[in-house]
Design brief:
Radius of gyration: 13 Å
Distance between the termini: 52 Å
Number of strands: 0
Order of helices and strands: HHH
Largest sheet: none
Number of helices: 3
Low-confidence stretches: none
Mean pLDDT: 88
Bound molecules: iron/sulfur cluster
Strand content: under 5%
């Protein structure tokens, strides 16, 4: 039986891979594996509205061009 706290869109969500990074995983745990009905993406989808490709569950946006954060040394 499926876990009812797992978002039904998780397997195909375009931001799921990004949210699986160590720095972002807390959001995956909170939203995708928890209160997914509070996710901004989920809400827009349920309303039949367009969902921006890079919209994150808390309403921020995934960086488009930098797959990994740049580290400044020195
Ligand atoms: S980001 Fe939102 S729509 Fe995507 S899997 Fe997580 S809870 Fe579901």
């Amino acid at each position: 039986m499926a876990d009812s706290h797992i978002c039904p869109h998780l397997e195909h969500c375009p931001v799921a891979e990004y949210l699986n990074r160590p720095s972002e995983r807390i959001y995956l745990q909170i939203f995708c594996e928890g209160v997914y009905h509070q996710c901004k993406r989920y809400g827009l989808r349920q309303a039949g509205a367009p969902v921006p490709e890079n919209l994150l569950p808390y309403g921020g946006y995934k960086p488009e061009m930098n797959p990994l954060p740049q580290e400044t040394i020195g």
